[in-house]
Amino acid sequence: xxxxxxxxxxxxxxxxxxxxxxxxxxxxxxxxxxxxxxxxxxxxxxxxxxxxxxxxxxxxxxxxxxxxxxxxxxxxxxxxxxxxxxxxxxxxxxxxxxxxxxxxxxxxxxxxxxxxxxxxxxxxxxxxxxxxxxxxxxxxxxxxxxxxxxxxxxxxxxxxxxxxxxxxxxxxxxxxxxxxxxxxxxxxxxxxxxxxxxxxxxxxxxxxxxxxxxxxxxxxxxxxxxxxxxxxxxxxxxxxxxxxxxxxxxxxxxxxxxxxxxxxxxxxxxxxxxxxxxxxxxxxxxxxxxxxxxxxxxxxxxxxxxxxxxxxxxxxxxxxxxxxxxxxxxxxxxxxxxxxxxxxxxxxxxxxxxxxxxxxxxxxxxxxxxxxxxxxxxxxxxxxxxxxxxxxxxxxxxxxxxxxxxxxxxxxxxxxxxxxxxxxxxxxxxxxxxxxxxxxxxxxxxxxxxxxxxxxxxxxxxxxxxxxxxxxxxxxxxxxxxxxxxxxxxxxxxxxxxxxxxxxxxxxxxxxxxxxxxxxxxxxxxxxxxxxxxxxxxxxxxxxxxxxxxxxxxxxxxxxxx
Amino acid sequence: xxxxxxxxxxxxxxxxxxxxxxxxxxxxxxxxxxxxxxxxxxxxxxxxxxxxxxxxxxxxxxxxxxxxxxxxxxxxxxxxxxxxxxxxxxxxxxxxxxxxxxxxxxxxxxxxxxxxxxxxxxxxxxxxxxxxxxxxxxxxxxxxxxxxxxxxxxxxxxxx
Lengths: 562, 160
Prior knowledge:
The complex is a heterodimer. Chain A is an alpha/beta fold. Chain A is 42% helix and 17% strand. In chain B, strands 2-3-4-1-5-6 form a six-stranded mixed β-sheet, covered by helices on one side. At the A-B interface, helix 2, strand 11, strand 15, strand 19 and helix 18 of A face helix 2, helix 4 and helix 5 of B.
């Protein structure tokens, strides 16, 4: 059926709710990439086999990732009238026990991580129930306690391969509202008022970019979703697409309507096969319900989305290189201006936003700009999802309001260093970012404050380093990365980075001199000032920040020979 | 790849956006490399200069002109993997599979003499929570240590 009225949407919402609360036991197995790698699929298959063989009345679904990657595979057990229980580090050997206990209204408490009595999906609330007094509440778990889930509100609860479940918790209501009750300008206005800034790293106001694209002359325009999440250590976008692909679809649909664009493209990296698969399923389902295609929601508006898959090149995250790659060319950046909003895909005005930026849109329309702007800090509204990884105890996806301090993220949520070791620094912003020493962990995480300490927000990777990590080695690692991924078009980046790498190798080998340190500084400065694109302009940041904050580690490695 | 198969792949792409890389990707997946003859054929079919297509194949790390071995091992070299010892994983693989640390066209790409294994590196899988990670024929292995590698390789027919 094609959704044409609020009644149609309501009908699907009810059938989706009947899947989430089927009136009998429902078990969800976390099967995002992280869950699968530690046996999530085997666990799912085993449970399915047992259910079939025994004829159990149990709904078994694949869910996305709730973010506590360290505890995967995570299984959710929902027994009618009782709290939803999350079980952690579940193995195939636990399958039989979980299933048979659930049928008698119980869960294996030794595997329980926490319970959820009701869940605020923001666009709707689900009430599960009570019981299981001995199991801690979700809000009492250290890893979850300090988080605020807006973008990840559905992750781990719904089946990402079923559009009905997304609609069940209020999904596509914002799109319906925008397309049937708001003018395109009113939508843009709402996004502008929300203060939403680009989540790809640069923090450009999203509503303003939309307005510029809308005003650009020409009929044929594009919107693009940048899903080329290339920063090593960052996997927020992968999780967002694997766990809740319709949130992205809905954001794109609302944006397309606001800008009057009929063609959308998702440029996604080849390294994310599961995300690609789930996006394809989501596209098909959205088309099936008339949420994409011709005459969407019977409004006369046409819009469809196509997926373009990358082929492994970090530089393609740069917007002009990304466009070249979509057009089947080598991903080499070009000078800007002209900006993409003037000349983008196939020379047409193009609005390009990151996955997470698009994911913010439905909730802004649903709850209003005022509600959204109340989260975070002034000028840095909303939440941001981070991947907290490296040598930290609690590894996983973390969502907090912008302006939250690094201390909160690394110590309160992350529980400090892994294996009891002392945290030395955190690296933000991928190869374009820098290393922040532990003594500056009271820094609020927002676009300006991170720039102030010499690094940048980037897409949201937070890689924790401990006392055993050599900061000079980290600088060398990033320069090696950037040098290998340089497209080779401009000299400062192609040759400059190569020389930085030679010098860093020399220092690591114990043969560096004071002059080398001076050259590192001056050459870095030249690369920053003269490179053509963001890759080169930011590539020396890891060197500059480690020199600034960990200069003594360089000094210790210098040759004592004269 | 015969002409008919190539025509079928090309026919799947009705929009120009993402077309060229999409076709090359399909060829790479089916043939486990990009045969130069297929590239020449493609050049005439989609009216793109061969030099341009060759440029794409050597620029993007997903493509390879040399056939890959029976099993493809990809070692993630992302930052979290790096700080947790990815370098040691790669060195162990080189040692066990008797390959050398050499790159071709700037890409790390090594195939064993018996053509059983190809080892390559990736920038980041985004599976950082389980670092260090490696990928073999689509299976992700997390929390890898040098000690675990022989056992993993044995699953793919490697003998000590």
